[in-house]
Design brief:
heterodimer, A: about 160 residues, alpha+beta, about 35% helix, B: alpha+beta, seven-stranded mixed sheet, binds FE2/S2 (inorganic) cluster
């Protein structure tokens, strides 16, 4: 086959090498070549945010990046959030606050929120609402999502 | 009543679904790893209407990675024909791949199969489509104009269905002589339900089972099985539909898609698994739409503000095809049957039409027609109140149905609800919070209300009235305990985000005296349940939950029988509590349910003589009335930006009554998500079409889905009028949020526009409409 590139990338701490066509999106590399199917595709044109992953710690829409652009990068996906079967505080809060229904948008929101809270530990509820406006959810009306992220922001601040 | 309340019903029990979904271990249809699968892409029509079309696939097979391509006729499948058993309905067939004529832009013409999805798209791009374009019919007005181009030859006047279910010869006289007659000409835009997970399927022939296994993102697995078997010429047994996690459906996934059948046919021919995953542009432009309707309605009131008569002309733009199994009649039939809603209407006349146009076909979308009929009635209430100088909430109170059961002029019997109480409470809250005072002063603040009911628990009898060729309604469940005392409950409903694994487990837990964690709910597999109608129309808790309660209660009976034998007492003296069978007359005496399970399978010699080994029970449940009716009042406060016309929602409150609330957290989530979709239809989302019949919103750049910035916090309060017609006392509630929001928002915007002389009657309301109204008044 033509136009294949050998790329190496680290996903949730695991090193991988993969042969990818240059037009293959990072999302497809993660989902179909490496089996990280937690990252979802809701639009494939950069609007919905379901495909959000962390690329070197920064949230990125993996449908808008090519796999080859991630050569050498550290990728964080939803599969890396829990510690074994123990959910992270943010995952727990999503469940407690009913921040998910069908769960399709959820990985994108979790990755977005993790990166946002890391950058903005002092964020207010309104800032959080604005930040999560980057992604679409069709089921929840967003309230549970905003509440979950806000609750985690507050409890992380208290613990800090 | 069996079982002695463990009290799992009514608890905000954490969802059993959440762990896998939060850790990325959910399994949506595209998540199944199938390295050997071929991937499908469709060649779609570039034009909305052509008398003749042909596809040349000769260039396709040469593309790297492409393995096959089929146009209609080469696939060996028959089309989908949805039937209504009514004279006023004209059946039309929807071919799996268009042949001969093309009827909407994006209609599938051919399927291309390749080793990966990229190659499949490359292949599809190399197809050349030859057509003889003709005038596209792009609106209800064009479709109904004399001499209009016909969308289907067999349709008279481009009308699939033209019904006048309610007639009244004297209504014209009443309207002519009434002290007050008000009208509305409500228009609503075309929407896409937009589940975040696109449609998709994976089809595979499994030799050992002699079965086509079809994994599909659907709400209705058995209905897909029936349709696939018919189209492919297989016995139902030869098709197994499996549904795992589904990323939203909202009605769009409760009809059968042509693409799923085409992929299955290709898998049969090629004897290789075939996967198709819709992309968002296909989804927006060429899946299914809903909601595009026009109403011209007059209502007569007496001097005291009581409705005397209602006269409605309803036209629904249902697009180019009648969808399987619900048909294009679903919107007009629902609208005309239920328009009177929560109000006492002594005289009623309605005509309702399903109008064919050269646009994507419509499917039921969350609430089906009821967002519109509620908006119509609530606009009429506001207008009449103004004409008669009565407070609009007072006018509603004078007309609300207030004694139950009530049989309306539409022949529907309404079960008890809290129509009056929900309005009172909603008003009281907004008053207490001072919102009524915020209407004074210079700011453009408006308050809108909507009172409505929603028919849920739509059982066989209610569907039979619609006269579909297939009659949905009942559901079936089996409850089975294994030798270790763990339970599997099956259901014919099929969740797409509603948390049924949790809710149904709560219902069974109360019957069996077990923790819900000991109960696994299995759904979405046609080999598990003999038949089930899936999840749509808010039916799952009321009907699916009823079947689960019955099967679990029968299983509990058997457990009690065996336990009684082992405890040397009567079955009636055994309670199932916290995993134990306890003697009612001596709570100290008992044995673990797990022991009964073990005896039933592994030590059957200890069973009483007349009891079969094993522990399982099956039950079916149906609501044998007009249905059950949830009700609610929505109250919303909106402020308009005088500079831009943008509306901002300051407060949103829902007071709702869905009978017994099984899991309050899940119910609130359904309400809020529903309201968000209703606000979307009221203010943002619309799929327009240009004069050539090309959709103008084919990406999320143009189709404005509201985000967390546009959707406010939504307050929810519950009233509980338990339902006498369901096993659980629950009424359905999945659609109510979406049903009430457009009416409430439209009323609030119009209230904020008071004094401008402008009233807006078209949805979505856009800032430019508001801005124009404000400018006129300046
Ligand atoms: S799938 Fe990447 S933004 Fe929607
Ligand atoms: S939970 Fe379904 S899209 Fe967000």
């Amino acid at each position: 086959m033509k136009d294949q590139h050998l790329i190496s990338l680290t996903v949730n701490g695991e090193p991988h090498e993969v042969l990818a066509e240059s037009r293959r999106t990072l999302a497809d590399v993660l989902r179909h070549d490496l089996g990280y199917t937690g990252t979802h595709l809701g639009c494939e044109h950069g609007i919905c945010g379901a495909c959000t992953v962390l690329v070197d710690g920064v949230p990125a829409r993996s449908c808008l990046m090519f796999g080859v652009q991630a050569d050498g990068a550290e990728i964080g996906t939803v599969e890396g959030l829990a510690d074994g079967d123990r959910l992270s505080d943010l995952q727990e809060a999503f469940s407690r606050r009913h921040g998910l229904q069908c769960g399709f948008c959820t990985p994108g929101f979790l990755m977005l929120a993790e990166a946002f809270l890391a950058e903005n530990p002092g964020a207010t509820r309104e800032e959080i609402r604005e930040a999560v406006s980057a992604n679409l959810c069709r089921c929840t009306g967003y309230q549970g999502i905003v509440e979950a992220v806000t609750e985690v922001a507050e409890s992380r601040r208290e613990r800090a | 009543m069996t079982g002695h309340g463990q009290g799992w019903i009514g608890k905000s029990f954490a969802r059993k679904e959440d762990h896998r979904l939060l850790t990325g271990r959910g399994c949506f249809v595209d998540d199944r790893p199938r390295p050997d699968a071929l991937h499908a892409a469709f060649v779609r029509s570039p034009v909305a209407s052509a008398a003749r079309v042909s596809v040349d696939l000769s260039e396709v097979s040469g593309v790297d990675g492409v393995r096959a391509a089929f146009a209609s006729g080469e696939l060996g499948v028959s089309g989908l024909t949805a039937l209504l058993d009514r004279e006023e309905f004209t059946a039309t067939s929807m071919p799996i791949l268009a042949t001969g004529a093309v009827r909407y832009a994006g209609e599938p013409l051919a399927i291309v199969l390749a080793e990966d999805p990229y190659a499949a798209e490359d292949g599809a791009e190399r197809a050349s489509v030859d057509f003889e374009a003709r005038q596209a019919v792009t609106s209800i007005e064009e479709a109904l104009a004399p001499g209009a181009q016909g969308v289907h030859d067999e349709l008279a006047a481009n009308t699939f269905l033209d019904v006048a279910p309610f007639s009244d010869d004297e209504i014209d006289d009443v309207l002519a002589s009434a002290p007050c007659v008000v009208r509305t000409s409500l228009r609503t835009g075309r929407q896409n339900a937009l589940p975040l997970e696109p449609r998709g399927c994976l089809a595979e022939w499994v030799d050992r089972d002699e079965q086509l296994v079809l994994h599909v993102s659907t709400q209705v697995p058995h209905q897909v099985r029936t349709a696939a078997a018919r189209c492919l010429g297989l016995a139902e047994r030869q098709v197994r539909v499996v549904v795992t996690d589904v990323g939203g459906g909202f009605g769009l996934k409760c009809v059968v898609g042509r693409e799923e059948i085409a992929a299955a046919a290709a898998a049969l021919r090629l004897r290789r698994p075939v996967k198709w995953i819709e992309d968002r542009s296909e989804g927006l432009s060429a899946s299914f739409h809903g909601r595009q309707q026009q109403y011209d309605v007059r209502a007569a009131f007496d001097a005291g503000g009581r409705i005397l008569a209602l006269d409605a002309d309803i036209r629904c733009d249902v697009g180019a095809y009648s969808v399987f199994p619900f048909t294009s009649g679903v919107e007009p039939l629902m609208a005309s049957a239920e328009l009177p809603g929560v109000y006492r209407v002594p005289r009623y006349r309605a005509r309702a039409r399903a109008v064919a146009t050269n646009k994507a076909p419509t499917a039921p979308y969350r609430g089906v027609s009821r967002p519109q009929i509620v908006a119509v009635m609530e606009r009429l209430m506001e207008r009449a109140a103004r004409e008669l100088s009565v407070d609009p909430l007072e006018l509603r109170r004078r007309n609300l149905i207030d004694s139950f059961p009530y049989t309306g002029i539409n022949g529907i019997t309404y079960d008890p609800g809290s129509y009056r109480e929900s309005l009172d409470l909603c008003e009281r809250r907004l008053r207490e919070e001072g919102w009524f005072d915020s209407r004074d002063g210079d700011r453009r603040v408006g308050i809108g209300f909507a009172c409505f009911n929603e028919r849920t628990g739509y059982g066989t009898e209610a569907f039979a009235q619609r006269k579909m060729a297939v009659v949905p309604g009942y559901d079936i469940s089996e409850a089975r305990m294994d030798p270790a005392g763990w339970v599997t409950v099956t259901t014919g409903t099929s969740a797409h985000g509603q948390g049924h694994e949790t809710t149904l487990a709560q219902i069974a837990a109360d019957q069996l005296g077990l923790h819900p964690d000991r109960i696994k709910v299995r759904q979405g597999d046609t080999d598990l349940v003999s038949y089930g109608w899936g999840t749509f129309g808010s039916r799952s808790a009321a009907i699916g939950g009823g079947a689960v309660r019955l099967s679990a209660s029968r299983l509990a009976d058997k457990i009690r029988t065996v336990a009684a034998h082992l405890l040397d007492t009567e079955a009636g003296n055994v309670d199932l509590v916290d995993g134990w069978c306890r003697r009612r007359d001596n709570q100290e005496d008992g044995l673990p349910i797990a022991e009964v399970a073990e005896v039933s399978y592994l030590r059957a010699n200890r069973l009483p003589k007349d009891v079969d080994p094993g522990l399982s029970a099956e039950a079916a449940f149906d609501v044998l009335t007009s249905g059950t009716f949830s009700n609610a009042t929505h109250g919303v406060v909106v402020e308009l930006d005088p500079g831009t016309g943008s509306p901002r929602i300051l407060r949103y409150l829902v007071v709702e009554d869905c009978g017994v609330v099984i899991n309050p957290k899940i119910v609130d989530g359904q309400v809020r998500g529903g309201v968000a979709q209703g606000i979307a239809g009221a203010l943002y989302e619309e799929i327009g079409y240009d004069a050539e019949g090309q959709p103008t919103a084919a990406s999320l750049m143009d189709y404005l889905v509201p985000t967390a910035s546009e959707i406010p916090e939504i307050g929810v309060e519950h009233l509980e009028t338990p339902c006498a017609f369901t096993e659980t006392g629950a009424k359905g509630m999945g659609e109510g949020g979406t049903i009430g929001a457009p009416a409430a928002v439209l009323n609030a915007v119009n209230d904020a526009l008071r004094g401008t002389g402008v009233e807006l009657d078209a949805l979505p309301v856009r800032p430019e409409h508001i801005h124009r109204a404000l400018e006129r008044n300046r």
